[in-house]
Amino acid sequence: MTGEKHGVAEHLEHSEWVPPFLGYAVHLDTFLMTGIVVGFLIVILFLLMRSLHDGAPTGLQNFLEVVVEFIEDLVRENLPVYVSWVTPLALTLFIFILLGNWLGEIPGMQSPTADINTTVSLGLISFTLLLYFSLKHKGLGYFSEFLFHPFGKWFIPVNLFMKVIEEVAKPASLSLRLFGNMFAGHVVILLIAYMIPWYLNWAVGVVWLGWHLFVGLIQAFVFTILTVVYIAIGQQKEH
Amino acid sequence: MELNLTVFGQWITFFLLLFLLTKFLYAPLSRVMKNRTAKIQEGLDAAEKARHDLAEAKAFYEAQQVKAKTEAQEIIQKAQHRAGALKEEFVAQAKEESNRIIQKAREDVQLEWEKARMELKREMADIIFIATGKVLGETIDRDRHMALVTDVVENVKVDGV
């Protein structure tokens, strides 16, 4: 904990640790929560592998098949050129963000996605994919977009400025949208706890919990589909 | 709320998760779903083949049915013709047989008639001998007068006989 803060602000602080010689802190609580998500997924995968069969699916396998098929369709419908490894990547993004979002709804836990470091790291992955596919499909033409679009060769500085902002805005908006929604949800839960009388606390809390579960699902979907759309933009030849 | 090394830590976590989910979720589930799709397609193909075979069998059965009906009709017609011919043959034979029986009966009747007439003549001759003898009061020589009596009897016509 840094500083002496009280009330809501106290609960929003991260547990930090500064590794020797590196000079930058890491958020231990975020790592712990992320570890819980990974551990939960390992358990799920273990259970799945034990009962996996190619007959009529039931229970967990049925649910996971629906999720995989949903992401597969999402990728196939949006990419002009289907790339097989994008599907597991989008699936990982979706599941990681969804479980990260929902983890914060359990008392005593917090969402790893309510930490801007998590959302920025995911946003940078999305941005890296955009750059990779843009360079792969457009080659040097991708850089010419920075210089000659949208106002032609006489406005190169303006074009460059606008294009850089446009490109940077993509991962920034992805990261900040997810972070903002999850962090705000966490803040609202704390405000409910502090401001609403104790005998009404549970009722408001339950309503907010239901709403925030929905928001968590929507945000995971939005992040995933926008990443796929950015890859699709990268694959398009024409500007 | 500042950016720090957690970003790199989360990258590592994400790629670890990407590896795990690809190897133990996406790949096995995709394989299982592909197998199931192949099985379902196989089942659909088999059903389609069975439907096709059924249609072929039905067409063959219907053709056979038509052929059998035609053949049965031909057999019935032939049998009817044969029955007609046999009937005519039997009727002709029966007529011939009945004519032959009637002819024989007539001949028998004629023969019996002749026999009866001869018997009658003999009886008449005897009566005439006896009556004549009684009238004449003497015995008539049968052998001597037989020719005479016979001639009389031969010339007697009773009711046109």
Verbal overview:
The complex is a heterodimer of chains A (239) and B (161). Chain A is mostly helical and 239 residues long. Chain A has one domain (8-235). Chain A has 8 helices and 2 strands, in the order αββααααααα. Chain A has helices at residues 8-12, 28-51, 59-78, 86-103, 116-138, 141-148, 156-195, 198-235; strands at residues 16-17, 26-27. In chain A, helix 4 (86-103) runs antiparallel to helix 8 and helix 7 packs antiparallel against helix 8 (198-235). The longest helix of chain A has 40 residues, at 156-195. With 161 residues, chain B is mainly α. Helices cover 90% and strands 0% of the residues of chain B. The radius of gyration of chain B is 60 Å and the shape is rod-shaped. The termini of chain B are far apart. In chain B, 6% of the residues are buried. The mean pLDDT of chain B is 88. Chain A binds chain B through residues 16, 19, 22, 24-27, 30-31, 34-35, 38, 41-42, 45, 48-49, 52-55, 57, 61, 64-65, 68-69, 72, 85, 87-89, 91-92, 95-96, 112, 115-118, 120-122, 124-125, and chain B through 1, 3-11, 13-14, 16-18, 20-22, 24-30, 32-33, 35-36, 39.
